[in-house]
Write a structure and sequence with these properties.
- The protein has 133 residues and is an alpha/beta fold.
- The protein has one domain (2-132): Rossmann fold, CATH 3.40.50.
- The chain is built from 6 helices and 5 strands; from the N terminus they run βαβαβαβαβαα.
- Strands 2-1-3-4-5 form a 5-stranded parallel sheet, sandwiched between helices.
- β1 (2-7), α1 and β2 form a beta-alpha-beta unit.
- The longest helix is centred in the middle third of the chain and has 14 residues, at 64-77.
Length: 133
């Protein structure tokens, strides 16, 4: 079963995303960017990496942009090439953030409110990209 890390400081948003994916993947939760980075690195070091990360951009402690930048730097230092890094989808309420999301290392972004079928489709495409290449 696929493993998805859901990162959002808002309980309702986390629950909604978990509900969308509960029958498609094992969902783990983080409530800020610092927890997300810790979960990512622990999963990687435990040889059980995530298949996808869904991350909010605006959170306390460490925001999504900084967390994504840390994750991408960790992958770079570990020698993981772009084709094999964990796919990350930014989830934001601010359309003007999309450029920053890509600059930080996100693969895609979704605007709130989330369209569940579109998000599932996008997630499947990203998680299966190695199978298609």
């Amino acid at each position: 079963m696929k493993r998805i890390l859901i990162v959002d400081d808002n309980f309702v948003n986390r629950s909604y995303l978990e509900e969308i994916f509960h029958d498609k993947a094992k969902c783990l939760i983080a409530v800020n960017g610092a927890e997300a980075f810790m979960a990512f690195s622990n999963a990687f070091e435990g040889k059980r990496p995530f298949d996808l990360i869904l991350i909010d951009m605006e959170m306390p402690v460490m925001n999504g942009l900084d967390a994504v930048a840390h994750i991408r730097e960790y992958e770079r230092l570990a020698g993981i090439d772009v084709a094999h890094r964990v796919p990350i989808i930014a989830i934001t309420a601010h359309e003007e953030q999309f450029t920053k999301c890509f600059e930080a290392g996100c693969d895609q972004y979704v605007l709130k409110p989330v369209n569940p079928p579109a998000l599932v489709r996008m997630s499947n495409e990203l998680m299966n990209r190695d199978l298609e290449e």
